[in-house]
Amino acid sequence: MNMDRMNASSGAWPPGSVIGVLGGGQLGRMVILEGRKFGYRFVTLDPAEDCPGAQVADEHITGAYDDPIAGDLLAEKADLIVYEFENISPDVVRRLERQCPVPQGSVLLETTRHRIREKDALVAAGIPVAPYRRVTDRAGLNQAVNDIGLPAILKTATGGYDGKGQWRLASREDLDRLPDDLFAEGREFVLEGFVPFVKELSVVVARGIRGETAAFPPAVNLHRNGILHMSAVPAPLPEHVLREAVRLSEEAAKKLNVIGLLAVEMFCLADGSLLVNELAPRPHNSGHYTFDACETSQFEQFLRAVTGLPLGSPRLNGAAVMVNVLGDHAEAFFRGFANLPGRVKPHWYGKREAKAGRKMGHVTVLADSVEEALAWVDDAGIWPVLTEAEKRVMYEKALSTLTETGR
User: Fold this and answer.
1) Global pTM value
2) Phi-psi region for residue 324, left (φ > 0), alpha (ψ -120 to 50) or beta?
3) Could you tell me if 367 and 321 are in contact, meaning their C-beta atoms sit under 8 angstroms apart?
4) Which option is the CATH number for 199-395: 3.30.930.10, 3.30.2160.10, 3.30.379.10, 3.30.470.20?
5) Mean pLDDT over all residues of the chain?
6) 43 and 59 in contact (C-beta within 8 Å)?
């Protein structure tokens, strides 16, 4: 580590600085691609030798995240270290913090990787969430159901993503169908009350080392089988709902003392009220549209925040729809690749094997309107077309009891 590289007067890391990336997935890959513009160099640490991040990094360390030798080597080579996903132990980050600056820090990771601590922190910050209870055994689950009612969703407190580690409970019979060994070895869960939302949306907000914030425009999200299918901006919601979404996100970033990015996923109810669902302390899938559609991408903004540079403008340049390309879609994507229009921006992650449900890449469709972009997606023949219910989510701006002057 070479601390004298940092500009002492500005506190910013200059070109030539080496950024260590804990994790070698597609998020790290896109951070590195944006960081090249600033002249930064990158070293990645990931168990996979040919992971997406390693393909574009200056150097790659193949090793487990909790391997102290690999971690010490990363700290030795880097001027500062970032993490690109949160399913790593805070103990790993604490060890690195003793050797090298880690702007995101272990405290934020410890909070956001654990669903119960995350919700407790949001409640303490005065941010609305769905009813929830901590669960560690079947007796506790029964009591939590008595408190919250059904339907509800049981989630693992740590781990789990894209719908994994979750069980929807609609009746008492569903409780009996849970695996017998579910509560083995002291596992923790959270039971969340079901939220009758009409739209899911998210805001990616940046916060720099001096406490300044900048939020990207809220995106409305559509999931299929628990995996994000697409995100659209401008989100089809009344303006005051969008303003409130930004306010909640900025408040969360400030109260949690975020350095870097915070993705805030929310439920919008029929009356226009918002409940925060989950947080992610990093670039987020629903913010991929910013790469092509905003003045500053979320990946550049992340680097600006952690390196001490002024934050860029999050201004949206026009309507956009981001669509994930899963392993299920890979064959059709390759068949149509040569004919993608100029306003369709492909991003391929370089993963070796196309598995069902695995995120292999995404495209961002730039258009004069969300409706125009969605029409192209339906006509592309890569993804199943939107159902009528999905169209209502993606197209309709009006909510059931809400008007533009309603609140």
Assistant:
1) 0.94
2) beta
3) yes
4) 3.30.470.20
5) 94
6) yes
